[in-house]
Design goal:
about 200 residues, alpha+beta, Lipocalin, 2 domains, eight-stranded antiparallel sheet
């Protein structure tokens, strides 16, 4: 009786064991096969290896879509500096955090004379940088920023609103919490008693 063979496959393990001559040969052959299979099986990566691999991967920013124009009822005001002529409000409905770790939001800055600047921005906690994606028109449409690039956030001059969001709300411990409900709760608790409509 001939040995059964699979399509394109050599003799079965049982057939090889019989050729070795008895149970002792079968046991030895099976042991050898098990040892080889064990050596060939890849080990799952350790937690350290996974963390190291994540750290060495280059950071890639995800594609973003411009949000709807902000509505007055969705704005949450936050304090920046008593010396500032502007009041700042974040559109709560626009706040997101991407898989790239970037917080994106619509910011509304209102001057003491009533002029309004609307912008769609991003903050990256890991590098402590900001990016302007677009500015808003009075009719609710957007103008995409030309040559948008990441720039460092400094707690001086025109950067103070981003510095406040970075340090007090988005990344108080230098890491993204990725908990939007917690961020909005802290924004609402700390908001000054002003109307930014």
């Amino acid at each position: 009786m001939s040995e059964r063979r699979g399509r394109g496959v050599g003799p079965t393990i049982e057939g090889r064991a019989r050729r070795l001559g008895g149970s002792a040969g079968a046991v030895a052959f099976a042991t050898l096969i098990g040892f080889v299979a064990g050596c060939a099986a890849p080990k799952p990566p350790s937690d350290f290896e996974v963390a190291f691999e994540d750290e060495t991967k280059p950071w890639v920013e995800i594609q973003t879509q411009l949000p709807p124009a902000p509505r007055p009822q969705d704005l949450v005001t936050f304090a920046v500096s008593g010396a500032s002529d502007f009041r700042f409000g974040l559109d709560a409905s626009s706040l997101t955090v991407g898989t790239d770790g970037v917080y994106r939001y619509v910011l509304v800055a209102t001057s003491s004379q009533g002029s309004r600047n609307v912008s769609y921005e991003g903050i990256r906690c890991e590098s402590r940088e900001k990016k302007l994606y677009a500015t808003g028109r009075p009719d609710g449409t957007w103008v995409r920023a030309r040559n948008a690039a990441w720039t460092p956030i400094e707690d001086v001059g025109l950067n103070r609103q981003q510095a406040a969001l970075l340090k007090e709300y988005f990344c108080p411990d230098a890491y993204a919490t990725q908990d939007l409900a917690d961020i909005l709760s802290r924004l609402r608790v700390k908001q000054p008693n002003t109307n930014i409509n």
